[in-house]
Design goal:
Blueprint lengths: L1 H14 L3 E5 L8 H6 L4 E3 L4 H13 L3 E7 H7 L1 H9 L6 E5 L14 H8 L19
Parallel strand pairs: 1-2, 1-3, 3-4
Length: about 140
Amino acid sequence: MRKLCLQEVCRLAKERSEIVFIGSDLGVGTLDEFHQAMPERFFMEGISEANVVGMAAGMALSGKIPYVNTIASFLTRRAYEQIAIDVCLHNARVRLIGNGGGWCMRRWVPPTRPSKIWRLCAPCRACALSPWPMPRKCVG
C-alpha cells in the first residue's frame, strides 16, 4: 500500500510542477524515482515530524503543494500541534500521508486507530481516506 501511494505522488508530481515531497526518515531507496527525476522537489528530513509539517505549511503558503509522508502514529502524535496551528489555522494546502500505522508495523510502533485519524482531521475540516475498513467520512 505504501509503495502504491508513493508511486501515485510521483506520478502527480510529474504532471504538476508545484508538487513537492517531504519525507521523515523513510529509509534508503524510498521514492528513488522521484528523487532522481525531480531532486529540487524532494526532501528527506530525518526523524523530525513536527518540523516536516511546519516546513510543508511554509511551502504551501508560498504556492507549493507539499505531500508529507511518515509513519502514521508519528504523524498523529509528534506533529499534532503543527498540523493544528501551521496547517489548519492557515488553511494550508498540505497533503499528509500516514503509512504503516496499524499492527503491521514493528512492535515499537504503536498502532494508529481510526479515532486518532478523525481527531487529527477535525481542526482542519479535512477529509481522511483510508484503505482499511473504517467509515468513509469527512469532517465539516
